[in-house]
Amino acid sequence: MKYIDEYRVPRAAEQYVREIRRITRRSWSIMEICGGQTHAIIKYGIDRLLPKQLRLLHGPGCPVCITAAEHIDQAIELALLPNVIFCSFGDMVRVPGTSSTLLVARAAGADVRVVYSPLESVAIAQQNPRHEVVLFGIGFETTAPAIAMAVQQAQMLNLKNFSLLSVLALVPPAITTLLDDPANTIDGFLAAGHVCTVMGYREYQPIADKYGVPIVVTGFEPLDILQGIHMTVAQLERGAATVENQYSRAVTAEGNLPAQKLIRDVFQTVDRNWRGIGSINQSGLALRPSFGDFDALHRFTLGRSHSQPELRCISGLILQGRNKPHECAVFGAECTPEHPLGATMVSGEGACAAYFRYRQQKIEPGGSIKDITK
Amino acid sequence: MIFAGSNGPGSSQHSPGQQKIMLAHGGGGRLMHQLIDDLFITILVDPEYDAKHDAAICTAGGAKLAFTTDSFVVDPLFFPGGDIGSLAVWGTVNDLAMCGARPLYLSVGFIIEEGFAIEQLQRIVRSMRAAADRAGARIVTGDTKVVEFGKGHGVFINTAGIGRIDHGLEINPARIAPGDVIIVNGDIGRHGIAVMASREGLSFEPPITSDLAPLAAPVMALIEAGVNIHCLRDLTRGGLATALVELAQASGRELCINEREIPVSNGVRAACEILGFDPLYVANEGRFTAFLPPDDLDTALATLRAVDAEPHVIGAVSDAGSPLVTVKTLMGTERVVDMLSGEQLPRIC
Amino acid sequence: MCLAVPGKLTSINAGDPLTRTGTVDFSGIFMTVNLAFAPEAAVEDYVLVHAGIAIGTINKEEAARVMQYLAEISQSATEDDHR
Q1: Structural domains of chain C ordered from first start
Q2: Interface pTM (ipTM) of the complex?
Q3: Structural domain range at position A52
Q4: Residues of chain B contacting residue C49, judged by C-beta atoms under 8 Å apart
Q5: 3-state class of A137 per DSSP?
Q6: Which of A191, A323, B80, B315 has the most other CB atoms within 10 Å of its CB?
Q7: Do B9 and A13 touch (CB under 8 A)?
Q8: Mean pLDDT of B8-33
Q9: pLDDT for A159-171, tens place per residue?
Q10: Chain A contacts of B7, Cβ < 8 Å?
């Protein structure tokens, strides 16, 4: 496929790896923010190609992982209401809240529908005027415009049976939260390419300046990631800390202005609880009061969730890049993709799930990963 | 215990009596295997037989027979390249073929929902007849039940089949040996994508048709050509990855495949990119993997090409290692291939 | 996070800005995609599609940057070696 295959050429990847090895003099920890990048890194084994001095930390950029259990509990409660058609992306239906998942709710009779686009949920609301249609609005800045558009279309169509449960989250506040932690070991960031396609990257420069970390806006294919790593290491080795754009084919400094406008028109920022991290100021998007009629939390009265943090799970430390999945005592034992205890095992994009899927059987007792590169 | 694992959703808070069957229990992944192992095999199956094989091998009056059954609940009932009728016939024919059996007799059971159009049923039945004729099998008995409107999905079909094994080869995961080459008979994932696309209203140009096909002919051709087949497995739900993981576990061998050698059509690749699927896990209905000694590879490839298959060598059995599947990625690194826990769902992340 | 796939815009259906759609060809798969956030996209352009919505247009000139950058750093490496 054009604009995909070109960025998966093994020979060019080898060359990039050689260049990265050549410029790396000291030890650096680089965090890829985005779960999609984590997935590609593990799937292609990119971390195994890098020199030993480079440690890739897997960041919190997985909307499925960081959606708090109480919001999933709300989703399940809504889905189980009679007369509700609950629309969710496929990613979210297997993710456990406090004690259940949307798939379990579906088995118990809830009408849970997997949609590919938020706009499908608007069509479902039009086709089912006697049902309440609720959209589970998960995601970061990349997905926010699509969710905002669904709400605005519902308003234009004057739909009275459509509402949104918004748990949308914003990436930059999470980055500053990680950097404010005195225990953080992050030397540089690969920023999430598609988030920046929508938002641009101007808001990252103050972060790079304040904390003295290089931030490289990076794409998702192996060559993108390798170039992003090269650019980050090059900055670190020469003592620079600025924002660079590796993913220039899809990202501009100012981003997608019509999409940003619609996000601002429909949403306002609110504090948001991140699974595994806790509450982060002004890191979420909720509907503006003028769209209050479309807010599922206004339309339905829900019980209080009694979510308890799972104490044995170290996903908070993993999301902050302080531990690797296999360093957790319950990884692969009590905690598996079928029975996840925490954020990073619940989604295929989560670091624990990626390690389990691609590495689990190669991880020796005691946590060391047997070298399978032979 | 029915569902392994301890502290997951629905297990710590609820007693097993409250657990419910989910769609993922039928998805061909890890949950389904737990259900089969922990409930069905433990309680139902005669320990003399290997119930996880595609078919049971039985003897009667000196003849060696293969016996199998399968149920079909595909949605939609008609899809590009086939329908539930041809699927029901060839699915069972293929399970017999994977034991090296020549399909002889089939039974058919219909569970029909009240209100289902007779015209559609006629189409399905004609398609079954044509499918049986093409596979050289005879449909000899059947059953019909009608359930109330809303209690079925148009029509569900069960088929069972008996085939005869008239060769001395033992085709079995236990015979998978270090050094064996692993082949597939064509590009993977077209059935899953064709069915999903017609369900989701995606259009393809050129259209993607299911790979649905009877596999008795290519298998019989291999046997007649004298290929010393060690093991066969048809790729169905859960795709190539799941079949290989099952075989790695059953044989205790490490299976190494090469991502670059796995045949995937452009359409299937593109659909997988868009929906966030991995083609290794997408369903097939006319594909199988065969394990052969390397000396027989050339004969096997020529034989399969002669029956219009497009075989590819995708990997080999390692002489060391543990019972798992590893894939050499496009970037030259190696990673483990695992089963999925349920069906793949379109994702945005 | 955020799966977005590039595909070629093959036709644009008229519509008001919020509901303007087009047909996008992903190597033989055709999908109707909302173009409200890609007002500049023209037929033959590649748009980046996320959740059924075009969130941007691929910049053809910049698309070669990954290889250009690699050529530049390899070049400077060779020059270093010769020095």
Answers
A1: 5-82 (2.30.30.140)
A2: 0.94
A3: 5-64+171-245
A4: 274
A5: strand
A6: A191
A7: no
A8: 62
A9: 999 999 999 999 9
A10: 334-335, 339, 341
